[in-house]
TrEMBL record:
Annotated family: Belongs to the CcmH/CycL/Ccl2/NrfF family.
Key word Calcium present: no
Pfam families membership: CcmH (PF03918)
Upper classification of the organism: Bacteria, Pseudomonadati, Pseudomonadota, Alphaproteobacteria, Hyphomonadales
Organism: Candidatus Viadribacter manganicus
PANTHER family reported in the protein's UniProt record: CYTOCHROME C-TYPE BIOGENESIS PROTEIN CCMH
Name of the protein described by the UniProt record: Cytochrome c-type biogenesis protein
Length: 131
């Protein structure tokens, strides 16, 4: 049983003494993307870098940093990609606007296609078909 405890302690990040701080750390672990796995939060990643990042989150919390300061630390170190919710600023406006622009372009294409079909449709009478 003690071997299992030692292995878990070596693999998992050390828990912070304060339950509120540990809750903050777990929340931040869900918001920060693993830079190796790319689509997993560091809380779920088994990569070595993710373990280092989890340890860094706990170190920064123990040092007294706020959640925003910790997010900014990772953002400065790894770029906007590391955050699952990157901030809206001059560099990321296209990322936030892309869904709206693509949806609008799709809507315009559908409406234009319908308009073309209705304009091209000609009402035929049975007499027109006999000619």
């Amino acid at each position: 049983m003690s071997l299992v405890t030692v292995l878990l302690a070596a693999v998992g990040p050390s828990a912070l003494g304060d339950p509120a701080h540990e809750t903050r750390a777990q929340s931040l672990d869900q918001e920060i993307r693993c830079v190796q796995c790319e689509n997993e939060p560091i809380a779920q990643s088994t990569a070595d870098i993710a373990a280092d990042m989890r340890a860094l989150v706990r170190e920064r919390i123990a040092a007294g940093d706020s959640d925003e300061e910790i997010r900014n630390f990772f953002r400065r170190r790894y770029g906007d990609f590391v955050l699952f919710r990157p901030p809206f600023d001059a560099r990321t406006w296209a990322l936030w606007a892309a869904p709206l622009l693509l949806g609008g372009a799709g809507l315009v294409a559908v409406l234009a296609g319908r308009r073309r079909r209705t304009a091209a449709a000609v009402d035929f009478t049975p007499e027109d078909g006999e000619r």
